[in-house]
Batch of 4 targets.
Target 1
Amino acid sequence: MKTQIRIQFIKYSLLYFLFFGIGLNVLADNLLLEEDFDFQVGTDIVGKNDWIAGATSTNKVKTVSPGLTYTDYPNSSNTNAVLFTPTTDRVQKSFQGPLSGAYYYSFLIKVSSAGSGEFFIGLYSGSAFRGRAYIKADGSGFRLGLVKTTTGTVTYTTGTPLVFGNTYLVVVKYEFVPGNQNDIVSMFINPNLSQSEPDVPAIGPLTDEGNDVTANVFAIQGRNNSGNFILDGIRITANWSSIKNTDDHYVELPKFISSHMVLQRDIPLKFHGWGTPGDTIIAEFIRNNQSFKDSVKISEDKRWMILLPEQTACSQPCKLNFYIKNHSETLLKLDDILIGDVWFAGGQSNMEKKVIHLLEAEQYIAEADNYTQIRTFRAGYSLNQEPQEKVLDSSQPWIVCNSANLSDKVSAVAYVCARNLCENLNIPIGIMQSYRGGTEIETWISPSMFQDPELCKSNGRKVNTATDSYSQSHSINFNGQINPLVGFPIKGFLFYQGESNTKRALEYRLMMRKLVEDWRNLWGMGELPFYYVQLFNMSAASEYGESDWCDLREQQRLFLSDKLKNVGMAVTIETNEDPTNSDNSIAIHPRNKKPVGERLAKIALKNTYGFDLLAEGPVLNRYRFSNDTVYLYFKNYGDGLKLREGTFLKGFMISGSNESFYSATAQIINDSVVALKSQQVSQPRAVRYSWAKHPTGNLCNSENIPATPFKTDMWKSKVTYTSFPSDCSVKSSDANLLEIRINGVSVQGFKPQQLSYTVDIQDKGYQDVTALTSCIFAQVKVIENPAENKTVLKITSENGSVQEYEIKFKENTGIHKQKNPSVQITQEGKGLIITNTSDESYDIFVYNLSGQLVRL
């Protein structure tokens, strides 16, 4: 049987040689090495089929008969195998592989006796085995062991010992992770090859310290304490499915297409994967005994993609089948699949912290079995300089978020959000997790986006310190943890990141904009919702203090003004329950994440699902300077502004034109308005609220959601940021504005190309003019001209080009200043009575406090 199959391979390769004029490896690309030891019984295998001597000992590696058999394992038969006894030579064989992704080496083994424990097989790197397997006697049986390197501790199988004289199928997975000590190994014993890779190996995953594999060599050896055993059917493959498929008719699915998954409702189901070029793959979705099926021919680059009809939400388990036409042995069956909404959760460590980290962890875990419609997938850590097609095999396939799985496998923030969505929508919710602690936002943006001239300049602005290493390279996390997931249909994004970017806080708005544009473009599903978390409170509480955290929070707030649709921000200014802990790893990782997830869910319920609810905290809508008083007008106040705690408002600061801020006495004067005064400031020109790393501000709305920290001024930050040289030759010429605000209200009808505006005002009080630039690297100078009742905004770009916007103020008629004696205006309650005492006709215009025309 073996000989016949091998002859078929040779004929197949000869045909290709005749047609294409080149020599091809007889093994499929996904099959890196295959050895069944079909040599003459009793012969030394050195020199046979490219085996060479690695190290000589007392005994030679010789073939014996019969060979080993195992159901469904390729080429297993009753021909030959090889025998090892203590002190048998090491023999080794080279193979070609990319040293990326994962290698699976598999073999059949029958042990007749074992010693005190020693390795016998594995990848060979320079002068030592890597990812090596062990045999050790245990009573009347034996155990198999595994270690990544020569210096690691061997981990042996547990439970009932393996039986002498039985044949076992063993698969060792060696997973490549960039770096010197990051690779991962796992061992599977007697796995079911008719199914996808098991979620739980017999041993591992292990990440022993020590150097990783650097050579494509495979070695086997009998050592003093390994015992007596027979090996057969050695194979090295690049994916799990190829272990079984001798003729290379195979179906390979991405790790995130698995049983227990949630598929996005109301859009075509989209699946992709890999297989043998020219084969036809069939995908079948089964729901309530109704089948939806389609097929496609696998392209020459081994890729395939299939669309099946869109589905409405479904909480009843559905099935998916994938197989190669005319090759039923390739069938992959996936079950317990639900249809609902899938949310993508990304960011750094505070998104990564699992449910077990929650203050309410015990309660959430205990209640999880009531929410088994929530499912999750997690992409494994993967640092890569180039975009990857597949996530690492250490990635966690879809699991049910029940009490058994929840504690250490699911992001706390994402789960709380998902549970709230599930409760309100009554549909399955999927969570796609891809995050990594301590990462900068630049690591999550695609390489192609860095061709953008604005992002080009950020190359030189990266911090040149020891911590700015390989792990913070641009796109390093995107390449392995985002790129492989692109295109999997989702409902939207949840993002929690920013702590690692405080050292370059003033660039964060730009980075956020590029990240959102990047991911939306790559997914190709339109303006997908993007909801993110603003930085929480850190360090000792203070009324006021300039810091990089304040600057980054302000950039996160300003990002909402970037005119991107379907964007929302969850304020978490009061959520850190232990911000002054001397252990910084605790202080920077609040356990009070329930309100964070709940606020994200509220934003999604209102903005994405159309619920009528108060989703966000009070946001400054406009303000007015009146002599020594500042009036602040808020939106999102619900049934009225209130104090979150305490007996008086805190956190408000006022400054005159000298840029020195002083504590303000603040009072809520109605549902939506706060009035400020300070004895130190007779003519207020700017207001800041909750402007500290750990602010004391306590303003909230009727839903107890805190007000967003803000500043009304455009004054330059007093935080010192390191200036970094840039080798980018492109300097932006963008000197345009995104918007102009007068007392916090956007100028109506603003167009970046229009350079002059006339604005009606109600009185001659101070008109505070601010602006938001299109390019964050442009500088804005405000030039006031009270004599001509106008303000000029001078915008200077990086390359020195200048643009000026002129704002002319014109008084309008108001109830407080009656200019026409023939027209009498009086107020009665909340209404106006306008009386014309002459025979002439007049046009009457009424303006609100922001200078906007109110139509009668």
Target 2
Amino acid sequence: MTAGAWRRRWRRSLPAVAILAVLGPLAAMPVMPATAQTAEPLPLTVTITRLSPTAPQPGDLVTVAGQITNPTSVEYDQLGVGLRIDPSPLLSRAALLDVVSANDHLPTGIGTITTIPALPPGATVPYELTLPADALHLTQAGVYRLSVEATIPDDEATDDGRVDTFLPWLPPSASVPPVQVAWVWPLLSTPHLQADNTFTNDTLTTEIGTRGRLGALLDVANQAAVQSGSVPTQRVPVKKGQLRTDPPPEAVAIRPVPVTPVIDPETVQELELMQDAATPYQVTVPSGGTSAGTGQVAATAYLAALRQLMGHTSSIAVPYADPDLEALSSADASSLITQARSTGLEATLPGVVAGLVWPPNGVLSETALDQLTTSGLVLSSTAAPLTATPAYTPTAVTTVDRTGGTVPAVVVDDGLSHLVTKQTRAADRVLLTQRFAAETAAIAVEGLATTLATRALVIAPGRRWSPTNTAVRALLAETGRLPWLTPVTVPQVLQQDQPDPAVTRAPLQAPSTTSESGLPLGVARQIAAANTELAGFRSILCPVIKSATGAAPVTTTTAAVVGAPSSLPTSSTATSVNCNRDDQVLMLQRSLYRTASSAFAKPASGGEALLSSTLTTLRAAEGKVSIVTKGQVNLLGNRARLPITIANDLTVPVKVQLVLVSRSPGLTTTSKAQTLVILAGTKPQLDVTVNTVKAGAGTLLVDAQLLTPEGKAFGPPTRLTVRVSAYGAVIVWITVVVCSLLGLAVVVRLYRRIRNARRASPPDEAAPAEPA
């Protein structure tokens, strides 16, 4: 060791000497139990920026390159940089995970040491180490621990800088059975549409841009879907004049990686609205009102790229707006899930496999499953946990019991999923790539001890994750470059015949309120109630009406049609307005689906505000069909017809029932509801017969209520005040008798006057006598 090296070692030892001087008097004190301690950071920082090939084969030249940084205040001279390896291979995933954080000094040095003459304080210098793969003397298939160490040449037992990684070694001669790998690729966003199809904001334009989250995900997937060629190899150089005798390394083909995109029909609808140049989409502005959106070009490009990706693979379509299945099931709103799955908006994109379900967080209870029609499930490991841990990584293929049979399912590998989505620095991405290759290689080596012909792994990032600051582009590419991996899609994994009979899983586990976030049950129940209210509004729209001209009827009905000035409308008039009831409530229905989106699981994320605005819009539409008779109505006679006016301010006819409910014992109404068809834009008046037994004048109360055709209340009741200004029944009979007697007296008197007049007239004496 040089003098400078001795000085540096002494300076590094000063803190330890000081500590010993302080702790010396305490040496005689009782020794406390030892606890785990964290390794002291080394003074130099070593990074790996290139390790090629990721998985060497016999005949390859292995290259490890990177940088060494000196953050200390002392200068290093004649620093040696070399490779060390653990000759004992890791033959299982569990063994690899046990040493991921180990920092022990690896026993064997390999290759030659590269000397860095000087490393001043704060300086960074590159290094590059090369050696033939055959010089590694790897005799068994497995994963080997490898480290790059920076040491002072005459003190190799102590590291001044070090970085650890893994080197998978699976030569073709090992005959390791390949492992299938399927990537679930979520292209999901947060709903931006409101009940009137205006956008709450224009952030989707940024998301689908080249630097946005969805734009980057789509670009990475499209790049992996078309990759091809072979893994570059670099043979060991020979000296000039010598003949090469070593065989070339076997070429490893680069295969395309067809991810399984997960799309939301609601996002597809938003993109189609955005790309419509004829009708520019509108975005709500903070100051009030709306303005034209700016994402028309971006939406057109994104949809084209999405169709390109989906043309190479198979896809999963979530129900419209990706609702929280578990929350809606708990709120007895399974019909809303069924409706959301039947929008059909995904039909404009190719490759969608019907019936596949990937529930939010990958968790689904048996109760929720029984309410779904599904041909396959994608579940997390917490939803279908292992009952016993096998000695190897189990295949993703399993089955789930449900009422009436079983459903094929795949279980996501949570460990690999967390690894590929891990936020990392650019300097550490090579290490993360080597970790991914090593872990999958260890899983493949486990297959030598199993009887399964094929095993599969499923990787699924978070539902709305961002690839920013991750190594996912490299890891996805490596899936098609590593010879022990076979890229497949989720539907291809589900088509496998049987799961591993040696692996058992527990029944479906219900989501835990502490571990998985979801819509609050109270909000889900409000959505279910709003859906029921919307169904009632839909039921009164566009009734069947029979034509009055004898022409082909629009449809037939037994209800009275009111509001027409002279006659019923002809069939041509009735069909001049779009009277499809689904079209009238479609925007409201889809807006209600959006309120149940799993994207709104967090409080104050926009779901409750959207639900409030949707209900406001719905009730404004319901208010256009109402009883407009208000205040006091005068009733003449104990049996009279009470006038009721109903307004239909909608653009389509409606069919309702009208019923009066008396709140006073002196007033009776017919209990049978009247069924009415009210034409659009009319305010007809109906006369409803009422009876009263109240004598004299008075005030009675009655409620007028509209009902749906099914007899459910539609809107609030209208309170009417009936002013009785006639006599009661007894007074009426007395009046009739008195009037009859008076009339009879008048007749008798007239008769007597006529008779008396005749008697008082004398005979005419001047009149000639009649002849005999």
Target 3
Amino acid sequence: MSKSAWNGHCAVPRGRWRLVALGGIGMLLAACGGSDGSVGVGSGQDPDPVALDFPIAYTKGPLFDAQMQLQVNTDVRDLERFYVGTDLYLLDRASPGVPERNITFTETQGQGDVMGVEFSADGTRMIFSMRGPFDPNLNDDEQPTWKLWEYDIPSGTLRRIIQSDITAEAGHDVSPHYLPDGRIIYASTRQRQSKAILLDEGKPQFEAQEEDRTEDALVLHVIDSDGNNMHQVSFNQSHDYDPTVLNDGRVMFSRWDHAAGVNGIHLYTMNPDGTELELLYGAQSHLTGTNNSEVEFLGAREMLNGDIMAIIRQFDHPELGGDIVAIDARTYVENTQPTASNLGLLGPAQRDVTPNQVRTDLPPSQGGRFSSAFPLWDGTGRVLVTWSICRLIQDPLATPPIVVPCTAANLANPTAVVAPPLYGVWMYDPGTQTQLPVVIGQEGVYISEVVASQPRPSPQVIIDKIPGVDLDLDLAAQNAGIVNIRSVYDIDGMAAVNIPVVANPGSTTAAQRPARFLRVEKAVSIPDDDVRDINDTAFGPNIQLGMREIVGYAAVEPDGSVRMKVPANVALAVTVLDADGRRISTRHNNWLQVHPGDEVRCDGCHSPVSGLSHGRADSFTSVYAGAASTGVPFPNTVATFSPNAGETMAETRTRVSCQTDCAALEPSLDIAYADVWTDPNVRAPDAAFAYQYANLTTTPPTTLACMSAWTSTCRSTIHYQMHIHPLWGVVRQTTDAMGNVLTDHTCAQGGCHAPVDAMNAAAVPAAQLDLTDGLSPDEADHFNAYRELLFADNAQQVVGGALQDTGVTVNPSMSAAGANASNAFFSRFDAGGTHAGYLTPDELKLISEWLDIGAQYYNDPFAAPAN
């Protein structure tokens, strides 16, 4: 589902059921609860009269603006909202009739917005995000930013966490949460460390857009309670938000994964310093809504029993809510996928929290809908919720309209439309299966989140890792870390090959091993139009692939293991390659991150067709045992590398290498292979080879410095017009001793892939492929050759001395799906092919890697023309 921009007006109606404003007129709603206001399925018992003896807080504001247009955005991915008139309210205890206090009005004057509310562990303070006051004389991008605020309950005072006006206005800061050590973790568009990387790359500092390029990406930051020591700890390319702290001290949050082919909000965990980031739950559990509808996982919180409570709802829903589920994320990584230690369990991991029949799809939900849920830790299992009853307007043209509950009869009324939601604060009690009202909903008012100052044990404190103690000091100084893959042949806990056999040089040659190299790619940050306004044509045929750079290659060891240095604090993806340097694995569509000086380990790779998740350490047990014993070389390998028991070949090789210079850890922007393992007493070592940018006669896509020595700032940035297109114009002739041309395999000008012959007369280019210079008649932002290679085109013929389209479609010979999906092109250059030897191996490697990362026209927004 694509995300659409919101302009402050009502959402476009979806099907028959649509939201209609009530225009401020008092409505009549037929009774649909008990006489005490409770709603539930009790057995005639009195509702639980016990109220909370500690404070609760909630946000409340107008659902519609002054023009009666829906001002509340229905899409959960649009986080830079401004619901003007929303304030934070405090009740001293969760009971109907307790007077509410508006604790933010002094700052907002009723023209602000509040979200992301959280109490401190001792219940004396609240932290939240606040925006405003709204200024009608300013444009949207000039309005005040979201800022972190704290309210001290005993003194009744408000303070802004970041005191400097200039610093506070420098970004949007939302969804804060207290860490057990007193610091604050929150989501921000500031992207502090990412901006520093941009400077290292020679680019201006800017806030990168999320992958739909509609607003700046919010990623997690940590700050001291006095507003100092702000730093970024997550490096997603779309939003990371709603952090909360689990009892074991880890941070749990919602991550919008939106790399190519992925579009979902899943639950992740990490340490407060950003280390040990991994999937917690939900990457393959989105089709768990009503009638298998797609849902996202939002507002997650830990329950007393260790389960996770979350709201499941669609990205975009006109009624602003969904259902509540409890998730056994200790036992399951997905709804029907247990962790490795719980194999055999079938699930489901998710269970309904309430007996209400709550729909997550678009039709009206007779059980109402929930917009937030806060599980209590008092042993009762009760949950504070914001809930809206299901209501219909019988006839939207009637004056005044009558609002009725969603009974079967009313739902069958063909003129009925969905009434605006009426969210209030309720206490759900599983013992009596009743919902007791705490704050009664009001027409045209949106109560969107509720929290309680509940007593609970303080979570454990996880100390930040320290360079020289927990982290490698030298790597940290280089702003680099290590990626350690146990075996690329381990696919979701299953061996794709017989690893011991493939790893044994006596049994398998290098040419017989399918995986030969690993490529590490980096996401390219895209600025908003104010920083650099570029057209979509700057991207490739598949704009969802974004722009990517290559940060390095490493050889895959015979057992499928890789251990290599990578840049820290950037969004990374890994790709497995064959001997030609072409991708044989699926695209890695979840961004990795490595903390400076840290080492990220994984067992193997993932097959997207399996329906399983592998992004969590306990998802699978490694299928590869590594070295059988300490001090005994791997079978039929040289004695140079003496392993420790359980080590992979990559771990052994890099450990031995680091006794001197750690050269084996160093990646390269070239692809190079040397057989360092085969015992020459067993057989002759495999031949070495390399594909090098230095051998190109055209401009290489990296610097001379990076071609000679890799650093964490090295990038291979490939642009079609600058690096690929010149290959077609390289003169490829052989001559005799007298200088006479014997063969001419030049591609374009003067060659066979040109629209004219040697006499300059019109001619059909060979294979209907024109590779000459010049802009495309179909897209003026692209060279014609680019379009001919990657887009379907019309065949041509010579009529009356001129080229004319025939109406027959010619399929492209290249594909943005990758080099191995572009066989129509590369097969011609294989041994025995019609073009064998025409392009050099180094040129073919350049074309292969460009196709593998998406065949973009540009891979740097600042290289693309500005509008």
Target 4
Amino acid sequence: MQRRTNRTLFPRALAALFFGCSSLCAAAGPEFSGVYPALAFFNDGNECGIGAVVPWQDRLWVVTYPPHAPNGSDDKLYEIDENLNVTVRPESAGGTHANRMIHRESGQLFIGPYAVDRDRNVRVIPPASMPGRLTGTARHLLHPEELVYFASMEEGFYEVDVHTLTVREIHPDANSLPDRGGTLLPGYHGKGLHSGQGVLVYANNGENSPEAMRRPDIESGCLAEWDGRGWRVVRRNQFTEVTGPGGIYGGGNPATDPLWSVGWDHRSLLLMLRDAKTAEWRAFRLPKASHSYDGAHGWNTEWPRIRDIGEADLLMTMHGMFWRFPAGFGVDVTAGIAPRSTYLKVVGDFCRWGDRIVLGCDDSARSEFMNKRRAKGEIAAPGRSHSNLRFIAPEKLDGFGPPAGWGAVWMRDRVSAGDSSDPFLFSGFARRGVHLAQECGQAARFVFEVDRLGDGQWTVLDSVEVPANGHLWRAFAPGETGAWVRIRSEQDCPAATASFHYSSHDPRDTAADPLFDGLAPADSASHTGGLLRAGEGEGTRLQFAATTMADGQPTAAGYYEMDADMRLVPVDAPGARQQLCEKVAVPAGVLEVDAASVLCLDDAGNRFRLPKGNAAFDRPGMPGGERVAREVCTERDLFNAHGTFYELPAENAGGLRRIRPVATHNRRITDYCSWRGLLVLAGIAADNPAENTHIIRSEDGQSALWVGEIDDLWKLGKPAGHGGPWKDSPVAAGAPSDPYLMNGYDRKSLELSHDAKDTVRFTMEIDITGDGWVACAVFDVAPDECFRHEFPEGFGAYWARFTADRSCKATAWLVYE
């Protein structure tokens, strides 16, 4: 048996601390925000995600995966003990697997193609016997004590004897078919599998078409059920998790337990609930925290889960939000779903292990797949794909990003008189509101109904009238409560939109947490920065081409490498620094800063404007530039503009139209990258504090880097900024301004002014869904007037733009606090 021991991790004497105390001892080895860099997992594929993490027989079991390996790979099954010693199991066969189930009767954990018994003996089902990218394992409908089902991502369905591991093929995996296309169900890219109520339920979350590679709003995915005789399509949307109260063990009471499935469409998240009495599914909608998951191809979602973490509520992950999910969620009681916090990490699986939540992540891929864009340039990828685990205290799940989300029940949909929308979540957020818009030649009335207790009893909350071809913002007061809300139209409407914008109070201010002490401020004249890359080779060291600034001038340059023990050492390798600078050069001309704001263009040439931060960013920083965009989690980009970090979805998931701010840092961060599960930042002040353990100083004392975890960025400071589409700008009558970002900011105010001799009428349009415009307000501004407008608390929109009814020089200035 091969064994790899991470000597810098938990010594045995500290095992009791890990399992019995709320904090880990610093002597446990290099650890930053719950990530142990020496624990990183590597493969030779274009991606190395962690597909499953399961506690079993006093061990944590982990499988990694590459992007497409239906017949095995160099990925491993890992066994981790209480001291974080890692055993690479010699039975490892690899493959792209994320399935896991514990079979009570035989006392086995099924994870990937492996069966692990109570004595931790491992048996493997060879890929030749059960080919495919295994995505789910479920209890058998007829013989659950003896058999289990396996499903692959390409509709391979198998029946396996739990004792002999004999495989019977129910339907072949599509990778073995000539066209490699699905033959049973619409959609592709299977994600979830669960059984109960006499059916086997399977979900896929993608579409295999050229159009799906470009647009996130096409028909895609499928939720389907099989009764042993044939398949029935339940809903033609993108779905991932399928589970029930039995969770990883399968159905405890399969005849009566509810079944749950989570998915999405271009409007919002979807939650499906199967009623055991009627065998029918009910649909509910929830807001999305992030649009980075929205690709219609389905590649960006990994494996969202609903899992038991040892608390009264289950934990659900979906579209960048941690959710409380009631363990008793069922047909008669649907109340209680609530957001915990938002996150940036790509979480493939999670579990409770001892007194920690373990997140299995997808961190650093060698391939960008389709996530390429001009703003990143031709930056070299990490030398090897790798990912890591993160260990956090359960209460930390509430302390990532503040809960906020956006979702629609209708998006330019045809609605008939009397039609009611799907129920939309109405609880869990402090500030709630909805934009209503309709494209009808006459005014239209819409009725809001509320299910107050989650018991299916609906009462009228209010009714509103939306003007012909008009828009209305309806804020919900704190006293307007309930589990779910739905909207009913009283007229036929050819195109109706109802887009909810929710947020909770952001407790942050503009000051950063002390863990960021030492990052160079925007106006710093003396600091160390440079360029970064996760290098090549077995150990994958971090490479750093450093530049030191003193009084605004570059004074020194060096080349450094950092290993898993977090030693940053100078390396005398002729040409290495220059070679690294060429591989990860910052592309020029990505952003343009003018008097109004920050102008950026997407790859199609569409113009967008972002707020400004500290005025020092109007001037150039370090020679070579400062990084604007880089992938920091697999198919997730971090965007850095004028002192603010943003989450930037891939172009085929909305791109710049769906960007959201994370934090305003106002620091001279020259570069950043993902490495061994950590986020590494370059840009350290010369007078950095010695007590900040997140700063790694070089052994020669000339350079330094900051290391932490990507979701630490929420602690950098509340998103804030100022600017607008116009600042004393020439404006042509009737010509709309560039779009200016509104999404993700807290308190918002507007100022309008102009130089015309007569009153100017300004029309403000907003993008309420991330893909179109509605007229929101009209402001008449007199000559020499500076008109001011405070937006209502909780008012949300993705973008704003303005038109003037006469040519003039105008200013449209927004302040976000």
